[in-house]
Amino acid sequence: EKKPFLQRVVETYKRVKKDSALLLSACSHLLYNKELMASLAESGFDAMLTDPFLPCGPIVALRLALPVVFFLNSLPCGLDFQGTRCPSPPSYVPRVLSLNTDHMTFLQRVKNMLILVSEGFLCNVVYSPY
């Protein structure tokens, strides 16, 4: 079923907000579980492997004073582009989930721009509670 664009945007927003709240709750339960956190601290780990997409891993590593090794091909919210100061014009560089190539039609470029704008909004929804 093909739904109107605005309806899909609203449904995606609601789903992201719900999933984000669930992940935040799980992270809070982990961090406030004194017994588990003490056990992790006593284990003597050298480093923590984590996915940077979910902020709970780096937060746990910070709390345990462990260095972090990220495993993901890109950082969320365009932080990899900001960190490297690598230009990423949406008129030429396709966004990860767009399925576009670097040879885009005008409508694909518009879609790419909309994805870029929505990423900033969704990143704020996901990461602002942390």
Task: Walk me through what this model shows.
The protein has helices at 5-31, 34-42, 56-63, 79-84, 106-127, and strands spanning 48-50, 68-70. The chain is flat and about 55 Å long. Helix 1 packs parallel to helix 5 (106-127). It has a two-stranded parallel ribbon with strand order 1-2. 55% of the residues lie in helices and 5% in strands. The protein folds into two domains: 1-72, no CATH class; 74-129, no CATH class. The protein is mainly α.
Task: Please give the structural blueprint.
Layout (H helix, E strand, L loop, with lengths): L4 H27 L2 H9 L5 E3 L5 H8 L4 E3 L8 H6 L21 H22 L3
Parallel strand pairs: 1-2
Helix pairs in contact: 1-5
Can you give keywords for this protein?
glycosyltransferase, mainly alpha, 2 domains, single chain, flat, 130 residues, 5 helices, 55% helix, two-stranded parallel sheet, membrane
The DSSP helix count reads 5
Largest sheet: 2 strands, parallel
The residue fraction in helices comes out at: 55-70%
Major sheet strand order = 1-2
Keywords: Glycosyltransferase, Membrane, Transferase, Transmembrane, Transmembrane helix
InterPro entries: UDP-glycosyltransferase, UDP_glucos_trans
Subcellular location: Membrane
GO molecular function, one term: UDP-glycosyltransferase activity
